[in-house]
Amino acid sequence: MAVGLMDIKGQYAELQDRIEAAVLEVLRSGRVILGPNVKGFEEESAAYMGTVGAVGVANGTDGLTIALRALGVGHGDEVITVPFTFYATAEAIAQAGAKPVFVDILPDTLCIDPAAIKRALTPRTKAIMPVDLFGLPADADAVRAVAEAHGLPVVEDACQAWGATYNGRRAGSLGDMGVFSFFPTKNLGGYGDGGLVTSHSAVLVQRARELRFHGSKDKKTFTDIGFNSRLDEVQAAILRIELEVIDEWNARRARVAAWYDEHLPREVLRPCVPDGLTHVYHLYVMRHPQRDAIAAACKERKVDCAAYYTTPLQRQPVFAALGHKVGDFPATDAAAEQNLAIPMHPNLSEAQVQEVAAAVAAGLA
Ligand SMILES: Cc1ncc(COP(=O)(O)O)c(C=O)c1O
After folding, report:
1. What domain count does the chain have?
2. DSSP for 18-62, written as a single string
3. Pocket test for ligand 1, best of 183, 186, 239 (most atoms within 8 A of CB)
4. Ligand 1 pocket check for 112: Cβ under 6 Å
5. DSSP classification of residue 318
6. Which one of 103, 126, 128, 313 has the largest count of C-beta atoms within 10 Å of its C-beta?
7. How do residues 309-356 score in pLDDT, each as one tens digit?
């Protein structure tokens, strides 16, 4: 039997009646932009996260740009981030008018290396943007220590990590601002695009709120170049329902991960979860030098898998002008060569996990 990488249809089936009723209610209400569901979802998200507020936006990419703009980042500024992430992380920095400055990841967690941040600081550095990769928070305390020592804000790209925790605090609340994506494949996924910006500062929440509506305070006077970037009522209505089950879905993902940890061949590197952190496994990403052989064996056995960020951002044509050379980011390059995401969703059974583990083992035989 084929095993899919994700199971959007299965997750829908679980909530079908409630989602369809909620969507119909929105359609019949005539309130489709910035209505009660966006407001409700923002309040419920802020309460979940422990932030002062949250602002629904059209997608995670806009959310990152809006967060940077809210912090005053713009032309001539530099923002430190990682090259082992989805392109949107760095694209958002460029959209804000700033220059992405890449630093390597840690070889175990695959998240930003705090010591490398220190070495990349310049007088033009205006923010630090760690990424909670694949559902694991970056080392927020270590990042914060560097940021505070240099008076810099942290924008946490938590697009892949709804519900993950770092010493009891939620991903998305670990920096000055946090950003989520509700792209359908995310662990908290909508049925279209969507995003959220969070902050501990009422001033920054208000600024993000203005920026998502053309930068206007009163929706009549225009003093800034902003965005037309709102979460819509239909998505918000669905996300409110998913918010009620996300902790259970994440727990089911963690159980699947524990089965993988148990059943995968010994020589395969499992995701690293440092003490005090919880991983929400947006993706379960294993690593092995024979990644391509494993992927071929999985394909043969109809087990879906995918290698992520195989051309890391420092080697993408759009960033050629940054002048990076082979060897600049050894941990990033190793992760790009060795990673493989294998099926992960709340509905996988232990038997399916064993089937995937057998396919991985066949690739190593
Ligand atoms: C780490 C990361 N940052 C940013 C984004 C951008 O989010 P979106 O696709 O909603 O614009 C994504 C997801 O696509 C992501 O995985």
Report:
1. 2
2. HHHHHHHHHHHHS--BS-HHHHHHHHHHHHHHT-SEEEEES-HHH
3. 183
4. no
5. G
6. 128
7. 999 999 999 999 999 998 999 999 999 999 999 999 999 999 999 999
Q: What are the structure tokens assigned to 254, written together?
A: 């963690």
The rounded Å distance from CA 343 to ligand 1 centre is: 19
Residue 232 and residue 258 share a domain: no
Length of the chain measured in residues: 365
- pTM over cut 0.85: yes
Q: Are residues 203 and 255 in the same domain?
A: no
Tell me the CA–centroid distance for residue 86 and ligand 1, in Å.
6
Q: Is the CB of 136 under 6 A from ligand 1?
A: no
Amino acid letter, residue 114? P
> Are 28 and 132 found together in one domain?
yes
306 and 321: one domain? Answer: yes
CA distances for 171 relative to 38, 140, 153, 277, 328, angstroms: 20, 9, 16, 10, 29
Q: What is the residue type of 75?
A: H
Decide whether any atom of ligand 1 lies within 6 Å of the 187 Cβ: no
Nearest to 242 by CA among 301, 292, 194: 194
Write down the pLDDT at residue 326: 87
Pocket lining: 178 vs ligand 1, CB cutoff 6 Å? no
Does the beta carbon of 85 lie inside 6 Å of ligand 1?
yes
Q: Please, what is the Cα angle at 25 between 22 and 30, to 5 degrees?
A: 135
Which residues span the domain enclosing 354? 246-364
